[in-house]
User: Fold these one by one.
Assistant:
Number 1:
Amino acid sequence: MSLDSKELRELIELIGRSNFVSFELEREGFKLRLEKGVGTAAGSTAGAVSVVPQPPAAGAPAAAPPAALAPASAQAAATPAPSALAPTASQEGPAAGLVQMTSPIVGTFYRQPSPDAAPFVEVGSRVRKGQVICIIEAMKLMNEIEAEIDAEVVEIVVANGQPVEFGEALFLLRPLA
Amino acid sequence: MFRKILIANRGEIALRVILACKELGIRTVAVHSTADTDALHVKFADEDVCIGPPASRESYLNISAVLSAAEITGAEAIHPGYGFLSENAHFAEVCREVGLTFIGPPPEVIRRMGDKAEAIRTVRHAGVPTIPGSGGLLEDEEQSRQIAERIGYPVLIKAAAGGGGRGMRVVEDAADLPRQLEAASSEAMIAFGVPDVYMEKYLGQPRHIEIQVLGDTHGNLLHLFERECSIQRRHQKLVEESPSTALDAELRARMTGAALASAAAVGYVNAGTVEFLLDVTGEFYFIEMNTRIQVEHPVTEMVTGIDLIKEQIRVAAGEPISFGQEDLKIQGHAIECRINAEDPDTFVPSPGKIRTFHVPGGPGIRVDTASYAEAVIPPYYDSMIAKVIAHGNTRGEAILRMRRGLESFVVEGIKTNVKLQQRILTDEDFVRGRLSTRFMDRFPVPVRKGQE
């Protein structure tokens, strides 16, 4: 049994008016967590609402997750109130619009082709699909790693000379149209 | 002694090696696929490196990924476990080339014993009995008759292009030969497209007896007695024990002697197992040698008190074996049951999430496992999730302890073959020690449409 939008709004208002700082409700197919922010940077009372649809039990109708809800008392805050509606799997993923580029092999990450040369990219660089973006050295072999999409480099996640494993995040990229 | 070892494997054997390294004060590196990120061997190792996606070919069998992981962590040696790269001579060679110690025999030995025909030639040359056979294709009835006389009836006519137990015909006596020869040849033609057949002695109810051997780089080579592994289904072992009820002191002496001769013939170093088939007549024949640690090694550890993994590491580090042949004796009796994530009746694998996991304990029970409650058994690898080993002062006590252990082993969320193991442990033939590789024939699988 999950709550519809109206019931959810009522519950949030009820908790909001109460002295409770955090509230959690779990039912089959549905989990709700409310938390009141205490002293955010902007001094607002923005809180956090997260509604996480659990995989429905066999036979239970799948609950349609409510659209993004902000608590009634939220104000634009320096620390944004996340209303994470996505399933837990993507809660650790990159921010919206960005793509993680991960290492396809095990080895040591280098930003430039040789110690004296300039790095392949900096933050802000634009790369084309197929362009060499870094080197991963493995067993004395310098493997040139290519960008898989046209993108702008938003963040270089690993440090020069750092060992990396398969699947480790190397860059955060913003895809270019 | 090594300061850091990388374990190129997963599951219970990876954990087993990691824990042996902890006892030796050696730091450990676990490698894993993305499917094993939460695996126990990863959690217990000092360092871990993700080396690829779930598929074995791209992870645990990926030589460059494994070697790169050793490079970035500074591992000095690699323990390959069993399966995966453990008998890959090329991998052992590459390790040697890049200055990593492969914990096992030299690549040349792996290669030689890995080629079954070459292994048989090698040990025969050393005076070890091998299954009598034609040594080549059968040409005509007259030649076949002569070969059969030499080998002694009953004989087996096998399709040269066959395998997996298909394309074989038993010939009981000389009168039967022409007809069976004809039939075998045409069946081979139909099934495999090639009429070529060869002949071997037929062993009706053989027992699988293997001898554990251990050699070092100081000229020591010794054996740690036998294990019986006759209870198999489709060549997959289910139950192993030591000692074997089929061996008396005299036969044991002859078989361990043959095993040592086989190992000596190739200058064997580190742990290995020589496999034989024992006929009802008391004759035994070499079938192959496994140049690695085996799944069922705990059975030998329980009756000898020796830690085989630690010995492997010591030998690889150039140390002598820490005991002598005269220090060893069989103490009591040990039995191992392999617990697989599979339907106990149909043997279909049953991967998934384990909800409840309670391992048995108490006197004489050892469980080697990397499974735990909430663990997800992935579908990409073999289905063995645990080994239960029972030790007792007698075989009878070991059986009682195993039954008690199996009864108190609780696994929920996935299906396991615990019930099948219980049936085996209460089977009258098993209890009486009446074993052969035909044992599991009496545990039939319901045949689904389309299955062979």
Note: Chain A touches chain B through twelve residues (CB under 8 Å).
Number 2:
Amino acid sequence: MSITRGIFAVILAITLAITYWAAKRTSTTSEFYAAANKLTAAQNGFALAGDWCSAAAFLGFTGLTALYGMDGALYALGPLMAFCTVLFFIAEPLRNSGKYTLGDVIRIRMQTRTSLLAVISGTIVVNFAYLMPQMAGAGVLVKLLTGISYNWAVIFVGASMIVYVGFGGMLATTWVQIVKAVLMLAAGALVLLLALATVHFNPLNFFQDAESRYGPQFLLPGNYLKNPLDQISLGLGYVLGLAGLPHVMTRFYTVPDARTARRSVVWVMFLAGAFFVATTLFGLAAANLVGQDAIRAADKGGNLTLPLLAQFLGGGKGTLGGDIMLGFVSAVAVATILAVVSGLTLSTSGAIAHDFYVNWIKRGRIEEHKEVWVARISTVVIGVLAIALGILVQGVNVAVLVILAICVAASANFPVLILSLFWRRFNTGGVVGGMLVGLVSSVVLAMIGPAVRGADAIWPLVNPTVVSMPLGFLGAILGTLLTGRDLANEERFERFSRQVHTGLAAE
Amino acid sequence: MGTNAVSTNARREDETGAAIATRDAVHTLIAAKRSFLVPMTVIFLVGYLGLTALAGFAKEFMGHKVIGAVNVGFILIAANYALAWALAIIYVRVANATFDPLTQKALAAMNEKECPR
């Protein structure tokens, strides 16, 4: 633990130095929300990898594979495939048509206050549903890894993100995410090298050993997700939900043009994709070397699999090598959470300060320096709220909130965004219909499903996306058709579409 | 050269012509994107959702051994990684070679409309 604390203190010192440096370069709104659009493709690619890979990816995928075999590998593949959707349909149009937030795109396209309000709600629900489990996970993890209490761990994580985002805005958030991504990849490469050394550098042996120890059933699908439709639903949720996550979208506003946005997605696909492949090998290696019983004994959900594997490969418990490896991987896990919650906080601040306060309440009439202050204040409020919620949900199973966040993103945000970008007739009624139906169906189906009600579930699927996403699209289409044509809006679509595809700003 | 010959009387007609050129250029770009992205999307959705459907409904098939203990399922997962990376590279190449020049053309057409003023 003292080694973990030591390594983590170094990481914390680096991130605070970054924040100090970034704070001096953050005084305009564009600097606060979008790092003044000055990032390179590689920088944004690393930051995307740091932004997207939450603790659920860093620790969860490895644990799932170690305990449930192939289902873990299927989980890990999803986010990479999702970046295909982002690359083809989201990254460049978003860069071309918005300013700082998803709300900007809808506001520019629809020019109605109702549609802006609908999109703000979607963003806030998704972000808080994602933020709460991160805070709760941070509490459990930091407590386990460093020994400080759950409440203090949550307060520590919340305070750090307030400092990063509040002072350093997007620039600090970006560099915290880049540092985390580099550390994560370095830790991954080191663990992979050591793990491969145990099987004479032939990864096929991981599979062979796993089969001879746990039987062929271990390498089959369906050990974790029993309902066949759940596999497809999870897949759909990933492929479309990731594309609808506001904190991922905001990253595309940090680059100067569509070309750079495009190249940054390719960066993240290779960086994060390589890490996801490795998690499958880590999981199998951990099942073979550490053993499922020891993994379950440390954490029922398998979330400590990767730290345990690192400890084993370093020389085992009690050895200096083992302690250093455990400390390193654990510290990276904490850095992972800090990077993700910072991204979430910044994007929520965009929805509350920029979309709601400035554009909805003040109708865009506010001075530049005031807008930055509103953004900073909202960051503090969001951070304090996140700390309170994190402490409140201690001991509650918050896994359902992650499912809910991805599901709402796929069923409400994604249909509304994609139809706004590409459908001429889409109107305010459609925005409201899509958001409302997508949101309500996701929440209701998740609440009556097995994730909340366990064996008493009225609805069979853990992840409702396979039903709620088509419902969201249906709501958006019916909303559009039932509220009649908005001819001025259709007229504007020509110019909006020009902006989406070429990046020429509509004056 | 051509613009010198245009008289002030023909100005309005000329602007309409530029507007049409702009719209055509943008529509060419959108059509090029659509005819490329639709098949690309079908490929990755069939590849990935097909894999999840097999994982759900064809467990035995997924369990057939291919190399040592590695079964069809893991081979298909590996193939999906390769597919995602290949599609990303293809997309970037096509975007650089085809979409970007078309975008430049559309932007040039828009500028032409505004320049004479």
Note: Confidence is low (pLDDT under 50) at residues 1-13 of chain B.
